[in-house]
Q: What sequence folds into this?
Protein backbone atom coordinates (compact mmCIF):
# COMPACT_ATOMS: atom_id res chain seq x y z
CA UNK A 1 0.00 0.00 0.00
CA UNK A 2 1.29 3.45 -0.93
CA UNK A 3 1.91 5.80 2.00
CA UNK A 4 2.46 9.55 1.87
CA UNK A 5 3.83 12.14 4.28
CA UNK A 6 1.11 14.59 5.27
CA UNK A 7 0.27 17.10 7.99
CA UNK A 8 -2.84 16.20 10.00
CA UNK A 9 -4.52 19.06 11.85
CA UNK A 10 -7.09 17.81 14.34
CA UNK A 11 -9.35 20.37 15.98
CA UNK A 12 -7.71 21.84 19.08
CA UNK A 13 -4.48 19.85 18.66
CA UNK A 14 -1.01 20.62 17.39
CA UNK A 15 -0.41 19.74 13.73
CA UNK A 16 1.27 16.35 13.26
CA UNK A 17 3.52 15.28 10.40
CA UNK A 18 2.58 11.68 9.75
CA UNK A 19 2.71 8.89 7.21
CA UNK A 20 -0.71 7.73 6.10
CA UNK A 21 -2.19 5.41 3.52
CA UNK A 22 -2.86 7.26 0.28
CA UNK A 23 -6.41 5.94 0.00
CA UNK A 24 -9.82 7.57 -0.04
CA UNK A 25 -10.83 5.47 2.98
CA UNK A 26 -7.87 6.65 5.09
CA UNK A 27 -8.55 10.30 4.27
CA UNK A 28 -12.28 9.92 4.96
CA UNK A 29 -11.51 8.34 8.33
CA UNK A 30 -9.38 11.31 9.41
CA UNK A 31 -11.85 14.00 8.30
CA UNK A 32 -14.91 11.99 9.35
CA UNK A 33 -16.80 11.80 6.07
CA UNK A 34 -16.80 12.72 2.40
CA UNK A 35 -13.73 14.68 1.36
CA UNK A 36 -13.40 18.06 -0.30
CA UNK A 37 -10.10 19.44 -1.62
CA UNK A 38 -9.03 23.05 -1.17
CA UNK A 39 -5.76 24.08 -2.81
CA UNK A 40 -3.62 26.26 -0.56
CA UNK A 41 -0.65 26.80 -2.90
CA UNK A 42 -1.08 29.12 -5.86
CA UNK A 43 0.35 26.48 -8.21
CA UNK A 44 -2.08 23.86 -6.82
CA UNK A 45 0.83 21.71 -5.56
CA UNK A 46 -0.40 21.61 -1.93
CA UNK A 47 -3.97 20.87 -0.88
CA UNK A 48 -6.05 20.73 2.26
CA UNK A 49 -8.47 17.84 2.51
CA UNK A 50 -11.50 18.49 4.68
CA UNK A 51 -14.97 17.13 5.41
CA UNK A 52 -17.27 18.18 2.57
CA UNK A 53 -20.25 18.38 4.94
CA UNK A 54 -18.38 19.78 7.94
CA UNK A 55 -20.49 22.90 8.34
CA UNK A 56 -23.73 20.99 7.84
CA UNK A 57 -22.59 18.57 10.55
CA UNK A 58 -21.73 21.53 12.82
CA UNK A 59 -18.11 20.41 13.27
CA UNK A 60 -15.89 22.59 15.46
CA UNK A 61 -13.84 25.41 13.87
CA UNK A 62 -10.24 24.54 13.08
CA UNK A 63 -8.71 27.10 10.68
CA UNK A 64 -9.54 30.75 10.05
CA UNK A 65 -8.71 31.61 6.44
CA UNK A 66 -10.14 35.14 6.81
CA UNK A 67 -12.50 34.57 3.87
CA UNK A 68 -13.83 31.34 5.37
CA UNK A 69 -13.55 29.15 8.46
CA UNK A 70 -12.55 25.52 7.99
CA UNK A 71 -14.26 23.14 10.41
CA UNK A 72 -13.30 19.65 11.51
CA UNK A 73 -10.05 17.77 11.08
CA UNK A 74 -7.98 18.42 7.96
CA UNK A 75 -5.15 16.68 6.13
CA UNK A 76 -2.61 18.67 4.14
CA UNK A 77 -0.89 16.83 1.30
CA UNK A 78 1.19 17.48 -1.77
CA UNK A 79 -0.40 17.20 -5.20
CA UNK A 80 1.22 15.83 -8.33
CA UNK A 81 -0.15 18.53 -10.62
CA UNK A 82 0.46 16.57 -13.83
CA UNK A 83 -1.16 13.36 -12.55
CA UNK A 84 -3.76 15.05 -10.35
CA UNK A 85 -2.98 12.66 -7.49
CA UNK A 86 -2.01 13.20 -3.87
CA UNK A 87 1.67 12.78 -2.98
CA UNK A 88 3.98 13.24 0.00
CA UNK A 89 4.80 16.74 1.13
CA UNK A 90 8.45 17.70 0.67
CA UNK A 91 10.37 18.88 3.73
CA UNK A 92 10.19 22.45 2.39
CA UNK A 93 6.41 22.14 1.96
CA UNK A 94 6.10 20.81 5.53
CA UNK A 95 7.89 23.93 6.79
CA UNK A 96 5.66 26.15 4.65
CA UNK A 97 2.54 24.37 5.95
CA UNK A 98 3.65 24.92 9.57
CA UNK A 99 4.14 28.64 8.82
CA UNK A 100 0.68 28.74 7.21
CA UNK A 101 -0.90 27.03 10.23
CA UNK A 102 0.74 29.49 12.67
CA UNK A 103 -1.43 32.18 11.11
CA UNK A 104 -4.63 30.23 10.42
CA UNK A 105 -5.09 27.61 13.15
CA UNK A 106 -7.74 28.37 15.77
CA UNK A 107 -6.50 27.42 19.21
A:
Amino acid sequence: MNQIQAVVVKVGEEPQVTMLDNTLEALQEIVGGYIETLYIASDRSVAMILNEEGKLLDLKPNLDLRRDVIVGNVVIVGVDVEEGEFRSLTEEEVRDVHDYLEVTQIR
